[in-house]
């Protein structure tokens, strides 16, 4: 169990959080949500491609490098920098092949973002089995060694879930798994009792129909059941490369997707964008306001929710 860190504006909790009464007055917290930047990869050594990476490398060279553009992602990050956000949430797929050098390059990119970042892995980041020291541990500064993790800022609890797993060729499924689901449910229940605004970040959407089966969250029903029992104020995901707004099945919990941060596409819902979320107290709950930003700073979609759950100090 990791206690709150009073010297850090974003505190850290691993599984069973230390209960601290919510403050009487909580300022607005502004989050930027982006996903799937698929940063330009360093050269891949042939020994690293004697596995599923070979197919992904072929796809990158034939097609994906022409639509996932570094300048597109840079323009998006620049717009975020003009928007005075508190934290940038990156919901996976920073890499293309999940190599050691890609993780290192992504760590440098995270460090250069215009605000404190938090990250979770995606399916590309977990493409093959490898020691954590070669991959996810390089991002520990912006996440944690164990999932789910939580960071708390002014009454807003950002919960990071890992749905990335190695899969067979031509598959991009995810799974949260029994052990992580148990920790997630206990964490959401305790954060809810504390009256915090629970913002959950996961790569694969925990809902059927948003991606093809071969890219789906295999235990989406079980994960949705966790949210139905324990609650959350909003759930953010990537993976689909679509800007979508739905809800967790059987609940009124908003489920918010975002297009790839580097994707160039003629279809409006596939064009690179980022979600600006403003969260502030409202009576005994929270108001969450969404503005979906295009690269040029214009807003393509707005929404707002009053979510119950905040307790009195």
TrEMBL record:
Residue span(s) of domain Calcineurin-like phosphoesterase: 30-242
Q: Return the InterPro entries for the record.
A: Calcineurin-like_PHP, CNP_phosphodiesterase-III, Metallo-depent_PP-like
User: Which Pfam families does the annotation name?
Assistant: Metallophos
Annotated region (Disordered), positions in chain: 1-21
Q: Tell me the GO molecular function terms.
A: hydrolase activity; metal ion binding
Keywords, in A-Z order: Hydrolase, Iron, Metal-binding
| Protein family (similarity comment) | Belongs to the cyclic nucleotide phosphodiesterase class-III family.
| UniProt name for this protein | Putative phosphohydrolase
């Amino acid at each position: 169990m990791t206690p709150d860190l009073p010297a850090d504006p974003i505190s850290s909790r691993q599984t069973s959080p230390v209960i601290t009464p919510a403050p009487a007055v909580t300022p607005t917290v502004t989050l930027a949500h982006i996903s799937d930047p698929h940063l330009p990869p360093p050269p891949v050594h042939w020994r690293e491609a004697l596995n599923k990476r070979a197919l992904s490398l072929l796809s990158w060279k034939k097609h994906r490098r022409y639509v996932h553009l570094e300048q597109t992602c840079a323009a998006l990050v620049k717009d975020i920098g003009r928007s005075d956000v508190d934290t940038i949430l990156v919901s996976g797929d920073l890499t293309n092949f999940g190599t050691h050098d890609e993780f290192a390059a992504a760590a440098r990119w995270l460090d250069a973002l215009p605000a404190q970042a938090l990250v979770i892995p995606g399916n590309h980041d977990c493409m093959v089995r490898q020691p954590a020291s070669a991959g996810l541990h390089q991002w520990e500064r912006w996440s944690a060694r164990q999932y789910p993790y939580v960071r708390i800022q002014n009454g807003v609890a950002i919960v990071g879930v890992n749905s990335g797993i190695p899969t067979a060729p031509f598959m991009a499924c995810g799974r949260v798994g029994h052990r992580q689901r148990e920790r997630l449910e206990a964490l959401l229940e305790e954060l809810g009792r504390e009256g915090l605004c629970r913002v959950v970040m996961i790569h694969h959407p925990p809902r059927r129909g948003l991606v093809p089966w071969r890219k789906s969250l295999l235990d989406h029903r079980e994960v949705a059941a966790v949210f139905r029992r324990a609650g959350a104020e909003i759930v953010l995901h990537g993976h689909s490369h679509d800007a979508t707004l739905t809800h967790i099945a059987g609940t009124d919990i908003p489920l918010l997707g975002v297009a790839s941060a580097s994707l160039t596409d003629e279809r409006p819902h596939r064009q690179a964008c980022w979600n600006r979320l403003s969260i502030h107290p409202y009576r005994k709950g929270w108001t969450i306001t969404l503005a979906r930003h295009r690269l040029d700073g214009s807003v393509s979609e707005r929404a707002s929710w009053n979510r119950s759950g905040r307790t009195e100090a």
